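Trying the structure run again after the queue cleared.
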Amino acid sequence: MPGQYLVAAFAPAVKAVLAQVRVDAKTNEHKAALELLGILPLAGKVVTGDAMFCQRDLVEQVIEAGGEYVLVAKNNQPALVIDIEGGFAFATAARSIAAATSP
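Done. Tokens:
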């Protein structure tokens, strides 16, 4: 008998799985994650995930529920990686300018 694939919400502070949903054989982890996020109270929480979950509809769901997110972006999404690098470069440059010009 084949095993079941699950997507789980893990709470590191209490070292426990809060909830998990089965990944249907006709879909993928992304759809299961959307379902899982829909049953969790996300307000004031930070959702983390690997590159597989770096999807616009997932982060929109987290934000709409009052949460925040930290996701890994890899080179399989090069435009996203460039945007992220550009954002960090802008922030670094802005800090340098502020440090150089502050009284």
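Residues 78-101 form the longest helix (24 residues). Worth checking whether this holds up in the mutant runs.
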